């Protein structure tokens, strides 16, 4: 089918056909849509939320925001969290440099007071420190506060994701699936590969009980979802030692590799069924490499390109994106060689 097509054209066609049309949109200064693709409105049971101002395609950038405050995290004992007194001191120093309007933007954000906060600090609880604790994100070597992004609520089955773009000094939020006009935009605050009970426990520090579709299921479906997410987590960990391109040679190893390839397909489908878009790229990479190890270059190419499509949404220049681009190129090369009867390695 592809034997008479030059490799360069084949590669370009496969990658271009599946890749989002706008990996460079991150750097555009003009936008074909209204200035803001979102609105901030009341969200039932959640205070304020962020909603799509118009339909958004998968990969669309929803927000680009520079941190209004950044601090270098203080020293702390692992497992105990950062000392609130030191956090508050650092945050106040930066807060005092802001305009009145910027300060008001920060003070309007929500926060939660935990029982141990009251026991430890009593009447001396610092509200600004609590706001920062509840709403800040890592920015590489620092921690930053993003007032607009902080308005996005949590879901255990989100429709958006985010990442830190050091080159732009901005946190980026993008759609992980098509989002309809008026639909609320959600991201995840925590790891999603745990049970509902474990997720609720982690989310309690934010001061709310999650009522997202994944957490509002009846007991039967919730139990099934818990088993699926736990299984996904276990399988991702199990595959970590197999993520190399060394082809097995011994018959027993070949048999195991073929079994792993079949398992990787099931893993990718499980992640899709649970709507865990945060883990698509990771599992697609697993599936691609698992098939490359048994010389199934067609499947390896398809899944590597799917992984590339996901990574390029995050950051077109990240090491993860470049890796998936290179894997796709290599697998196409081997696929073409196989079809010509001179399989590459």
UniProtKB/TrEMBL annotation:
Domain SET: 36-190
N-terminal signal peptide: 1-17
Pfam (any one): SET
Entry-linked SMART domains: SET
Entry keyword set: Signal
InterPro entries: SET_dom (IPR001214), SET_dom_sf (IPR046341), SET_domain_protein (IPR053185), TPR-like_helical_dom_sf (IPR011990)
PANTHER family: SET DOMAIN-CONTAINING PROTEIN 5, SET-6
Protein known as: SET domain-containing protein
Organism: Pseudopithomyces chartarum
């Amino acid at each position: 089918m592809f034997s008479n097509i030059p490799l360069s054209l084949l590669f370009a066609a496969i990658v271009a056909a599946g890749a989002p049309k706008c990996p460079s949109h991150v750097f555009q200064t003009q936008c074909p849509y209204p200035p803001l693709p979102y609105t901030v409105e009341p969200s039932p049971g959640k205070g304020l939320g962020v909603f799509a101002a118009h339909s958004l395609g998968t990969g669309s950038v929803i927000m680009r925001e520079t941190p209004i405050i950044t601090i270098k995290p203080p020293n702390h004992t692992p497992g105990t969290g950062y000392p609130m007194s030191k956090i508050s001191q650092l945050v106040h120093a930066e807060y005092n440099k802001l305009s009145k309007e910027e300060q008001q933007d920060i003070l309007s954000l929500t926060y939660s007071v935990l029982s141990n906060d009251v026991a430890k600090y009593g009447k001396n609880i610092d509200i600004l420190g609590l706001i920062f604790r509840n709403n800040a994100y890592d920015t590489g070597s620092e921690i930053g506060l993003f007032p607009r992004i902080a308005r996005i609520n949590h879901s255990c089955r989100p429709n958006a994701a985010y990442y830190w773009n050091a080159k732009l000094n901005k946190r980026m939020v993008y759609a992980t699936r098509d989002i309809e006009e008026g639909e609320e935009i959600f991201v995840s605050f925590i790891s999603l590969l745990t049970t509902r009970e474990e997720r609720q426990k982690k989310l309690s520090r934010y001061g709310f009980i999650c009522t997202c579709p994944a957490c509002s299921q009846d007991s039967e479906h919730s139990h099934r979802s818990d088993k699926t997410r736990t299984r996904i987590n276990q399988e991702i960990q199990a595959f970590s030692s197999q993520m190399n391109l060394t082809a097995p040679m011994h018959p027993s190893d070949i048999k195991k590799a073929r079994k792993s390839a079949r398992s990787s397909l099931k893993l990718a489908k499980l992640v899709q069924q649970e709507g865990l878009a945060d883990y698509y790229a990771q599992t697609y990479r697993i599936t691609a490499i698992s098939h490359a190890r048994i010389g199934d270059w067609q499947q390896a190419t398809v899944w590597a390109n799917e992984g590339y499509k996901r990574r390029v949404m995050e950051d077109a220049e990240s090491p993860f994106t470049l890796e998936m681009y290179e894997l796709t190129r290599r697998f196409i090369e081997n696929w073409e060689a196989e079809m010509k009867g001179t399989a590459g390695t």
